[in-house]
Design brief:
Helix content: 40-55%
Number of domains: 1
Number of strands: 5
Strand order of the largest sheet: 1-2-3-4-5
CATH topology: Double Stranded RNA Binding Domain
Distance between the termini: 72 Å
CATH architecture: 2-Layer Sandwich
Radius of gyration: 19 Å
CATH class: Alpha Beta
Order of helices and strands: HEEHHEEEH
Low-confidence stretches: 10-26
Structural class: alpha+beta
Length: about 130
């Protein structure tokens, strides 16, 4: 029995690559507020507007610690292979001449986001002391 072999042309591969990029862009929502640009990306899940709002509101207090934050990128991921700590949160904060990252996993998104914000607040305090 012969299996069919599919040969893609360069144009077809480019089209598939563009479709993959468009899919990632659709799942990423950026909101520019008066103070900072916050982008939220959901991986392996969708339609969690309440979690997105919670994440956006959770990073706003970081501006009180260091008002020079340029942008924040929040990645929320759902892992299907782990049953206890299957919610992952990664927050990347861009500050002048540096990038700060915090990653946490847990049972619920709210707790992982809060843990990331706590870790980032410690990192921002150290960064602020280093600048002085």
């Amino acid at each position: 029995m012969r299996l069919p072999v599919t040969i893609f042309t360069a144009g077809a591969l480019f089209f598939l690559y563009v479709q993959l990029i468009i899919t990632e862009v659709i799942m990423t929502k950026a909101v520019v507020s008066d103070v900072v640009n916050v982008k939220v990306t959901l991986r392996h899940s969708n339609n969690h507007t309440d979690i997105e709002e919670y994440a956006r509101n959770a990073v706003i207090p970081l501006l009180k610690i260091f008002p020079g934050i340029i942008s924040c990128h929040i990645i929320l991921d759902h892992q299907k292979n782990d049953f206890e700590k299957n919610k992952l949160a990664e927050i990347t904060v861009h500050v002048p001449q540096n990038v700060l990252v915090a990653k946490e996993s847990g049972a619920v998104y709210e707790q992982t986001i809060d843990n990331c914000v706590e870790a980032l607040s410690r990192q921002l305090k150290k960064y602020k002391e280093k600048l002085q």
